[in-house]
Structure prediction request, 387 residues.
Amino acid sequence: MKNILIGITSSISAYKIFELIRQYKKEGHNVKVVLTPNAKHFVSEIVLQTLSENIAYCEQFEKRDNVEHISLVDWADCFVLAPASANTISACALGLANNLLTSVFCAFLGSKKPILIAPAMNCDMWNNPIIQENIQKLKSLGVEFIDPESGFLACGTVGVGRLAKIEDIFEKSLRLVYQNKKNNDKKIIVTLGGTKEKIDNVRYITNSSSGNMGKALCKWAYRFGFDVCAISTVEYSAIYKIINVQSANEMLEELKKQDFDCLIMASAVADFRVQNQSDTKISKEEIENEFNLKLIKNPDVVSEISKNKKENQTIVGFCLADKDLIETAKRKLENKNLDYIVANDVKIALNTTSNAVTIIDKNGKIIDIELDVKDEIAKKILEVVCD
Prediction:
């Protein structure tokens, strides 16, 4: 659980911060909000207080027990300034403390705690060289930015200036408070989802893997400070890099192109593919009473990659079984030249939001992780394999 302080300025996109607060609260974090006087034209203090379950701070000299801008800095683990207007960014760069929010920023910058700024403004204001100079000055002082996106703006023009996606602001802010800087130059690849082996150009055989464990592993790897790349059979968007593939062979070929410090093979790779694939849709009229598919073995993706494993690389495999789980996992760990293997019981792991796993390392050490939501399981797996 982290303490997140959000600063809201006078921008039409201020209403989007309601969803950001909701996401922090949903994950169990504490939230406080400080806003500029003009921000009250765009968002309701009552709504902010209701969502955050805390007072919405605004007035510089409102009488309270503590010196507000200092007490808020002492309380917070991270300051997220979103949306940040051109005016407030410039005031922060100049070291002004002309309202409560900029006073908080001034003290926060001095505290060396992490700050994330998410600008939102008209595209011409964004391209103003003075604004860009102020942004570069703040970056040079260690302030992190998440740049605005291009799109239709409230003023009716199209260009760069839209507030970044709320999910991206959420994840980048949590990366700032969870990251271990020793991980910043390290790359993790996570494969996820069930591979799809074509029958024809519209049909395929696959398995029931949702990819949720892999997504959770990517999320926590990103938060811990790694350079993350997901090689996924599931299409989704995230703040880290995603490469979409379908078949086992496509996944293998993509992995051969990648360099990495750690590879986590969380995908459910099909053991077989269809030999007699058709490039066109097979019509029912072409088939009488039955249609036979000839299946041939797929390459063992993780074994192929681990053949050329470098000394400083870590490879983690997954094992899914419904009997003799630990013995099966130990055998795969050795045969596939893995550093770790995560053993899953079929009866627990599939199509659920929870899981319980056993991690076995190449020296035979066994770590049991008890039943928990997959998000927490993923976090604990990374804490073991990336220690």
Q: What stands out?
A: DSSP finds 14 helices and 20 strands in the chain.
